[in-house]
Model the fold of this input.
Amino acid sequence: MTLLRDDDLAAAFDHASRSYDALVAANPGYHAHLRRSVRRLGLPGYGAGLRLLDLGCGTGASTAALRSELPAAHITAVDASAGMLERAAAKPWADGVTFVHAPVERLAEAGVTGPFDAVFAAYLLRNVDDPDAVLTTVHDLLAPGGRLAVHEYTLSGRRADRAVWTMVSRGLVQPVASALGDGALYRHLRRSVVDFDTADRFTDRLDAAGFDTVRALPLPGWQTGITHTFVARRPETAR
Ligand SMILES: C[S@@+](CC[C@H](N)C(=O)[O-])C[C@H]1O[C@@H](n2cnc3c(N)ncnc32)[C@H](O)[C@@H]1O
Done:
């Protein structure tokens, strides 16, 4: 199958935004895993004085994880889907969260220029046309020493993990999504994970984009070997 990209992907997320929160609530650990990835950034002091960028914020699940772990930080949350972003912005946020409608490929045009102390990207990079270009943008938006956490479906390379992923997505997720009229998006989800980097390959990609202290950390439960947090840092000085 052809993966969805750009406007087609944004339109699919616009439609799926109606049921997105209910679907992720049925995924055990979804919100707890996002919070764990935020803690893995290792940022101090509840985030006081820090500027954070949530790329591909969707309906705000990742934004809520940032808010919960780093309540004193300022968060800029960006998404290409107007439908997803509308739902995020309608939630009761305290001060300190700004939502921006833009594709990650056109952040500067939308006025998102940094520098940021940390960037969080949950379930985004598998969806973009050119992950290396996006990682270069993220690197340049970070302050020297700034931190990145990528929370992403990245298979281990073991056949058993790929089989679990195929079983969960074909057997559980796709039937429900198809009944809701979102079959194409969730077929894209299954295929995009299979086609995307393994955890080792994505670690290499981060190294090649100029990040240092790159680590791939597993997530618990059924997602072990399927989903990882990648933490990395923009070096203090140019390499
Ligand atoms: C699977 S959702 C994840 C949402 C949220 N981060 C979470 O953890 O629940 C992926 C989001 O990335 C957004 N997205 C995909 N490609 C994008 C791009 N090129 N630029 C900005 N957002 C994009 C989609 O619109 C969607 O809302």
